[in-house]
Amino acid sequence: MQLNLYCTKDRVKKPVTALDGQTLKMYTCGPTVYNLAHIGNLRTFLFEDLLRRTVEAFGLPIIHVMNITDVDDKTIRGALEKNQKLTDYTKPFETAFLEDLQTLNILPATQLTRATDHITQMIALIETLLKEGIAYAGDDGNVFFSIAKFPAYGALSHLKLSELKQNASERTATDEYDKDSASDFVLWKAYDAERDGSIFWDSPFGKGRPGWHIECSAMAIDALGPTLDIHCGGVDNIFPHHENEIAQSECATGQPFARHWAHAEHLIVDGKKMSKSLGNFYTLRDLIDKGYTGPEIRYTLLATHYRTQLNFTLQGLDASRSALNRIKAFVERLHTADGHSKGCVGPALEKLKIEFFDALSDDLNISVALASLFDAIRQFNAWIDSSAVSKDEAEQILKLLGELDQVLGVFPLKQQDEFIPPELTKALKKREEARQAKNWAEADALRDQIIQAGYIIEDSPKGPTLKKD
Ligand code: AMP
Ligand code: ZN
Q1: Binning pLDDT at 50, 70 and 90, where does residue 416 land?
Q2: Which domain holds residue 50?
Q3: CA within 20 to 30 Å of 330's CA: 163, 202, 254, 426, which one?
Q4: 234 Cα nearest atom in ligand 1
Q5: Minimum-distance ligand to the CA of 258?
Q6: Final residue of a structural domain among 379, 408, 437
Q7: 233 shares a domain with 319
């Protein structure tokens, strides 16, 4: 099948294709590891996971490169505040991010690239831009990209420089700014002892460190070559980050940088973007502590189309829990169904498969795909009620659910995946903490809570687990 996906630059849905006809080269902007990711960030990574899984389900192999932004203003500030080496400061956040991906069943990137491992490539790109006369050194020691030298500047974000009061001599050394302050942007930041402490690299243009935008250009080109098939991120990346990536990369290589641009809309709370700077954010761990599970959170963040803002609420998570419980109850019925075939299951499965994947092929239309799934479940349940589903047919249904779940990644398909109420999983975790702290009274109280709920604690090689008594 062919996936048609909206392209931010061309403003149309267009086929996702591999330039070499074989493997799709996808680059996605990764997290800045100065903090735990919030669930807005994770929504964007889940969109990219849905995209990747759909491309793979449609039979196109993919190389997925994701970066880790482990050097920028925020990581440096954090490391200096904690009096730590930069990597000692960023590493725990990188590890936590990878754990979050696992909790949400997000496939790991084929290649994870760290900015600090690519400083040489960044310097080489900047040298090329200086040689071409596109970059220039300011009298403050910073190196800037001259946007006037790249006539296509603004093509991604549909920004018309001529319509802005843009002053050619204006420039900015900060990484993030709005469209109306479009200006020459920084490629290399000269060392500033007060701001940077002991964190700097030597370069032909003096000691300092790369600007944020050049980091992604260097890593993407290094891993995937001058032209990517698809480049993704959240909508806040469109300007200036991705616009600047295009300008730097195309001026340095003379080749088109990315053939397709895809962006996920924001997750919002009370009408505002969820962000660390506004302080209105939940991390994944906050929600797990409230008793929600990885699949429930994954489902919530996936079930709204990626180009629509998602207004996050805890009620939304509860609705996902109900939806997943319906699927779970259905799967349990399938494991015991033993009726007499009336011949209706086969055509219904065919219809579901076509509708589900057709919907995804149309710009990842997840709402239509899920609606066709729940319609089919309603129908199958009615047939199970009247004993019209044979054991063999039940297995065929389970097989198709498995195929759909290659993309959705949320179904409790195996019978032995016993559902454990999240509050009990939480109680078990707390009991382990209490035991480690030798707080026996609390540990015993938590054990009693688990037993009263009808579960027993079993030891396993992975540590204690819960089982229905
Ligand atoms: P950062 O760690 O800030 O570099 O962001 C990582 C990714 O999360 C980027 O692709 C951002 O565009 C995306 N992002 C940031 N805030 C949100 C939000 N509220 N909703 C969805 N995506 C977001
Ligand atoms: Zn990036």
Answers
A1: very low
A2: 4-264
A3: 426
A4: 12
A5: 2
A6: 408
A7: no
